[in-house]
Amino acid sequence: MPSREKTIAIIGQGYVGLPLAMAAVEAGWTVFGVENSPTKYALIASGKSPVEDVKDQLIAGALKSGKYKISDTSISVAEASIVVICVPTPLDDNRAPDISLLESAVISIAPHVQSGTLVISESTSYPGTVRDVVKPLIEKHKKSADISVDIAVAPERVNPGDAIYHQKNTPRLVGGLDAASTKRAVDFYSSICDQVVQVSSPEVAETAKLLENTFRLVNIALVNQLAQLCADQDINVHEVIEAAATKPYGYMKFTPSVGVGGHCIPVDPMYLSWWAENNGKSASIIDTSDAINVGMPLYISSRVRQLITGASKRVLIMGVAYKPGVKDVRETPATALRDDLIAHGCEVAWIDPLVDEWDGSKPVDTQWLCDVVVVATAQPGLPVAEFSKRGVPILDCTGTFKDLPHVTRI
Ligand SMILES: NC(=O)c1ccc[n+]([C@@H]2O[C@H](COP(=O)([O-])OP(=O)(O)OC[C@H]3O[C@@H](n4cnc5c(N)ncnc54)[C@H](O)[C@@H]3O)[C@@H](O)[C@H]2O)c1
C-alpha cells in the first residue's frame, strides 16, 4: 500500500492531466488518474493513450508497475495528499467563461479531501477563480468543518505536439492562497519540473497564464489583419514579415493563418475580457483581436471562392486539426471555413492524416475530384504535391507550400 504522502490524484486525464500523471509516476509518485468520460477511461485502462504526446507503452508500463491507477471516481482522492484538477474550462454560447466542469470537479472531490490535502488547480481560468470559487466550494462540501485544506494554482503551459518543451523543461508558475500552500505546491512541482517560479498570489499566476495566451491572440490578429491589407494592395505579406524579422531585437515573428483554434488561444483571452467587463472595465484590444481572428475563416472562404472559375464548386480542405502534429479538432477554424463554404453553395470534403473523424464526417481520399484545395493546417503528410501536379488551384493558409506550382499563399 503506497503512503498517502507519496500519492496524488489528478482529476481529468486529457491533454493536461495525462502527461502530468506520467511525469509524476516517473518522479516516484503513486498516481490516481481520475477520468469521468467512460470512453477515455476504458481507453486508458486498456493501455491506450487518448493524446499524441503520451505513448501507449508509457501508459501500459505505468499501469503495470502499479504506480498509475486509472479511476472513474473521485473517491480515490481520500488516498492522496495532493489533488490536481485538470478539467476543461471552455466558453459558453455567449463566449463567456464556462467553469461548470471545474465547479463540479471541485464539488466531487471536496467530500473526500482529508486534513492537510493540498488542492491545486491547473485549469485555466480568470483571476480570482481559486480564491472565490474553488476555496468556498471545498469549504462548503468538505466532510467536516475541522478539515483544513491547502490550496494553490499552477497553470499548465503544455504545448501539445511540441518536440522540445514538455513538463520537465517548461518553467512552472505556482501561487498559493497562503505561504504553506505555496511551499507545498512548489515542492510538488520541483519533483517533476526543472524550474518552479513562485509568485505572490494565485491571482498573479492566473493572470500570467491569460497574458501568455492573450499575447499570442493579439499578435496573430495583427498579422492576420496585415495579411488582408497587403493582399488588397498586392504586397507580399510573407516578404514583409520576413523583412521585419531581420530586426534582431524587439520583434517576434507571427504568420497569417486560417484563424486560431484549440482549447487555449481562442478561449483564454475571453476569460480576461470577461473578467475586465465584470470589473466595469473593457479589454478592447482582446475583443478586437478576437473579432479579427473569428472573421479570418470567412475571409479565407472568400479567397477560396475567388479561385473557382467554373460552375462546379468542389472544395477540398487539407488539414482540419487546429494545429500541425495533433489530431485535436476542438475550436478548429476549419469548421467555420467549411460552414461558410457550404453556405455559399460549395461541396466540401476534407483530408487530414491525423484525424479519423470530424463532426461526424470521414475524410475522402486523394481521388476526390475538386476544383480547389485549401490548406488550412500544415499537418505532416498532406498530399498537396499530388494535387499541385494535377494542376488544381491551391490556397495555402500555412505558408508551407510556396515552392509548388498552382499554390497561392494568403
Ligand atoms: N490542451 C492544452 O494545450 C492546454 C494547455 C494549457 C492549459 N490547458 C488548460 O487545462 C485544462 C484542461 O484542458 P485539457 O486540454 O487537458 O482538456 P481535455 O478535455 O483534454 O481533458 C480534460 C479531461 O477532464 C475530464 N473531466 C472533466 N470533468 C471531470 C471530472 N469531474 N472528473 C474526472 N474527469 C473529468 C474530461 O472527460 C477530459 O478527459 C483547461 O483549463 C485548459 O484550458 C490546456
Automatic annotation (TrEMBL):
Organism phylogeny: unclassified sequences, metagenomes, ecological metagenomes
Keyword Ion transport recorded: no
Protein name, entry field: Unannotated protein
SUPFAM superfamilies referenced in this protein's UniProt entry, alphabetically: 6-phosphogluconate dehydrogenase C-terminal domain-like, NAD(P)-binding Rossmann-fold domains, UDP-glucose/GDP-mannose dehydrogenase C-terminal domain
GO terms for biological process, alphabetical: polysaccharide biosynthetic process
Keywords: NAD, Oxidoreductase
InterPro entries registered for this protein in UniProt: 6-PGluconate_DH-like_C_sf, NAD(P)-bd_dom_sf, UDP-Glc/GDP-Man, UDP-Glc/GDP-Man_DH_C, UDP-Glc/GDP-Man_DH_C_sf, UDP-Glc/GDP-Man_DH_dimer, UDP-Glc/GDP-Man_DH_N, UDP_ManNAc/GlcNAc_DH
Pfam families linked: UDPG_MGDP_dh (PF00984), UDPG_MGDP_dh_C (PF03720), UDPG_MGDP_dh_N (PF03721)
Domain UDP-glucose/GDP-mannose dehydrogenase C-terminal residues, every copy: 316-403
GO MF annotations, alphabetized: NAD binding; oxidoreductase activity, acting on the CH-CH group of donors, NAD or NADP as acceptor; oxidoreductase activity, acting on the CH-OH group of donors, NAD or NADP as acceptor
